[in-house]
Amino acid sequence: MEFAIKFDFNASNNEAEYEALVLGMRMAQDAGALHLLAYSNSQLRVKQVSGEYEAKEESMIQYPQQIEELKTKFKSFQLEQIPKEENAKADYLSKLASALEDCKTRGIIIQHLPQPRIPLNIQAISLNNNDWGCP
After folding, report:
1. CA–CA distance, 90 with 107 (Å, rounded to integer)
2. Interval 97-114: pLDDT, tens
3. Alpha-carbon distance 20 to 26, whole Å?
4. At residue 29, does pLDDT exceed 90?
5. What is the Cα–Cα distance from 2 to 134, expressed in whole angstroms?
6. Beta-strand relationship, 76-81 and 35-40
7. 80, HSE (Cβ side, Cα atoms, 13 Å)
8. Does the pLDDT at position 121 exceed 80?
9. Model's pTM, two decimal places?
10. How far apart are the first and last CA of the chain?
11. Which residue from 24, 26, 82, 132 puts its CA 20 to 30 A from 109's CA?
12. Taxonomically, which superkingdom (predicted)?
């Protein structure tokens, strides 16, 4: 299954790779897949998903948790690390979604993602009016 994602929001490389994995897992589940083998050229991603490494940032912690939950939908799930040189097809697909705004390419699904699947943490800070600008 090949697909490209067009993000309608700013995402770091880490977020984009996790979003692609989550979306791919959901699409495979929707297609009725029982066994899933996914590839990543990121050692960090593979180790975080396997539980060997821990994510530090709050938003990054939530992605492996979500993937762990999605894994239960399959009889087997494996994420393998591959060398970057062997990941040329994924690099092509990542650029394709940006280049082809509204075009359809035969055999490739372009999925628009309007917002991250992991909610952003927003903290409000309340300032007492007497504190602002006072020595």
Report:
1. 15
2. 555 554 455 555 666 667
3. 10
4. yes
5. 58
6. parallel
7. 8
8. no
9. 0.66
10. 62
11. 82
12. Eukaryota
Residue partners of 104: CB distance under 8 A and separation at least 6 = 110
Instruction: Tokens for 91, please give them.
Output: 């690099």
What is the number of other CB atoms lying within 10 angstroms of the CB of residue 8?
10
CA 18, 24, 29, 30 torsion-angle sign: positive
Of 55-64, 80-89, 124-133, the poorest mean pLDDT is in: 124-133
pLDDT one-digit tens code per residue, 77-100: 999 988 877 766 666 655 665 555
| Residues 70 and 26: beta-carbon distance below 8 Å | yes
Query: Would you state the pLDDT for residue 124?
Result: 40
Residues 6 or more apart in contact with residue 105 via CB below 8 angstroms: 96
How far is residue 110's CA from residue 101's CA, in Å, rounded to a whole number? Answer: 9
User: Residue 122 — φ and ψ, nearest 5°?
Assistant: -120, 125
Give yes or no for a contact between 55 and 44, defined as CB atoms under 8 angstroms apart: no
> Within a 10 A sphere around the Cβ of 48, how many other Cβ atoms?
21
Phi then psi for residue 109, to 5 deg, are: -85, 130
Cα three-residue angle 60-65-69, rounded to 5 degrees = 150
